Amino acid sequence: MPDTLLFAIEVTLNGLMAGVLYALVALGFVLIFKASGVFNYAQGVMALFAALTLVGIMEGQVPFGHLLNVIFGTELTTFGWTLPSVVGILLTMGVMVVLAILIEKLILKHLVNQPDIILFMATIGLAYFMEGFGDLMWGSDIKKLDVGLPQGISDVIDTTTFGWFGYGFFIDKLDITATVVAALLVTVLVLFSQYTKQGRAMRAVADDHQAALSVGISLRFIWVLVWSIAGFVALVAGIMWGAKSGVQFSLSLIALKALPVLMLGGFTSIPGAIVGGLIIGVGEKLFEFFIGPMVGGATENWFAYVLALLFLVFRPQGLFGERIIERV
Amino acid sequence: MKKLKLATLALVGALAAGPALADLVFPSLSYRTGPYAPNGIPFADGYADYFTLINERDGGIGGIKIAMPECETGYNTEKGVECYESTKDVGTGALLYQPLSTGITYQLIPKASADGIPVHSMGYGRTSASNGKVFEWIFNYPTNYWNGASIAIKYILDQEGGDISDKKIALIYHNSAYGKEPIRTLEELSKKHGFEFLQIPVDPPGQEQKSQWLQIRQQKPDYVLMWGWGVQNQVAIQEAANIRFPMDHFIGIWWSGSENDTLPVGDGADGYKALNMNLPGKDLPIYDDLKTYVYDKGLAAGAGDQGGTVLYNRGMYAAILAVEAAKKAQEIHGVAQITAAMMRDGMEALEITDADMEALGVPGFGPEFSVSCANHGGGGQAIVQQWDAASKTWNVLTDFIAPDTEVIQPLIDADSAAYAAEAGIEERCN
Known about the structure:
The complex is a heterodimer.
Chain A lengths: L2 H34 L6 H16 L6 H8 L12 H22 L9 H23 L16 H11 L7 H23 L1 H11 L1 H6 L4 H27 L9 H11 L4 H21 L9 H15 L14
Helix pairs in contact in A: 1-7, 1-8, 1-10, 1-11, 1-12, 2-4, 2-5, 2-10, 4-10, 7-8, 7-10, 8-10, 11-12, 11-13, 12-13
Chain B lengths: L1 H16 L6 E2 L2 E3 L6 H22 L7 E2 L2 E3 L4 H11 L14 H14 L3 E2 L17 E2 L5 H15 L8 E7 L2 H4 L2 H11 L2 E7 L7 H10 L3 E5 L3 H12 L7 E3 L6 H4 L10 E4 L9 H10 L14 H24 L6 H9 L2 E2 L1 H6 L9 E2 L12 E6 L4 E4 L8 H19 L7
Parallel strand pairs in B: 1-3, 2-4, 5-6, 7-8, 7-9, 9-10, 10-11
Antiparallel strand pairs in B: 11-14, 12-13, 14-15
Helix pairs in contact in B: 2-11, 2-12, 3-4, 5-7, 12-13
């Protein structure tokens, strides 16, 4: 098989894996948008906050330690424990649920029946607040996230493909893990929304707030539930991306990678987020591989948006988005 | 009335906290927030702590205290320019700017030149600013990016027994003015030494670099050089480890060689190399003074936990060079209260020897160099250091290596001449 074709296959496979990582971030946006019509600008920062909290809890870091030391002249840094990943993840999930309750109580409750743009602006404020709050709580140094995920080249795939083609493909074990986790996550989310009482209530709210209220569904509870689930998705995304780069404030910028995925897949579809992520991942990687060298490289950031815009020309609601019907 | 009194008190308090009219003002354009904060904080802390040491131990420079108004840029060029504008007239006027950003430096070159305030872009910014004949107010000693590229190639030549004509060397770079700086030099060095040169840009911030490292895996370069900043560094080192690229053949510029870049990668970063213009670590006599006069008095900047890191030491090095230039300016002009123009004279007369560094409590900390009216770049030397993941320290591998001036100087002359023609600048120092 010619080298170029082998390289293209390798790039495509890696594009699919990268797409899964983009989709993980996009999922959080979709969940909240579906249930409340809010585009949650803070989703990227939530991923950062979740990852920071996870590392902080696992390493026994004293939250607001620096602030306490400055005010009270203490020398607090750690509690002296190191917790297993599972405990850390469960406790972090608890923190994300508390965060969801606070967001509902302090922000969303006061903005019921306000136009969508007001809610969107509120999430912008939330993003800035959480970024600063996370900094104050856990510090701004780069933290190593070690929850025991495998990382590096998969020897099995490398050896097998070498035996077949005389060229071993590179697939990162972390990307394989992310794919499995994303598949599990989507399955659980679909099962939850289809077969549980809360899931059905969530879908009812997504369909029509007023109708859902009229049959006794608590809008406030559903919002807490949705923001908690989005917090969990943010934690998963934070773990995957944090394992690649360490946990640091640029983690919040992964939201930029999710936007073209949402534009392409639609803001209201969970399968759309996955398919959109895969198309963006493969598209940008293949473009960078074949066209990048001709135009000076570094095409991925802008090409993802160009691809999404091309899709928008033909399907403004995205591939899987709900069709926009306006009656006048 | 009560409100008026409170407002007056607040105003008096604010004025009292600001620089006095007889301070030597060295504004710090820092970034303690945002994605680049992990690198901005240690540099800003080192810069501030050394000034605090001089104030506490020596009573200032020549008996005049240093004031360091700090302004947050967030590594954002527009904010950096705003910071410059808001601090340049503080107290008796700013004496020197150290922007720690190539983007901000490029914007400040015409502004600071018009205002007559020196800018010290130490190992960053516009490389050809080392030509003092054209860039009267801009300094980039002790070294610059083109020197860095040349030193990396000299080191590789040394490793390969003097012949790299059959080698392939890739540059993975931050797709910005900063990252593109070494390309021209590497192209010239490629012609001179015969190696194949590959360019691989990464769009900032650089969290996703799979395409770039697949390209490296497919093209199989013998060495990879990196001009990165922020998250790009950590991801690149992680991806290099993932594809099992030999880490001792992966060399970063001095902005890609701090603990922040290697610690998050863990064992995978072992053996990674980087250039440096100052020694890493705390094994220096100056740290005893810092402990006595700064840390133990509770005067340390930030959380006070950055001492000995590569970037803290670099911030401290920048402050040391600023203080030494100010002393030189006082000596030349015979006054303690110097102006920005006098500061420039001090910088142009700066000479740093091993004996000077020993006397300052930082033996061997940086290269020996001298600055002149025509040469604002110093000697251009740098060391190569290697990361030891087990001990989590940088080990120094070489002495200070001199750059290939035969290649660099014509490039500096050509670039600065083009700038002079464009900006209508007449050469000085003739």
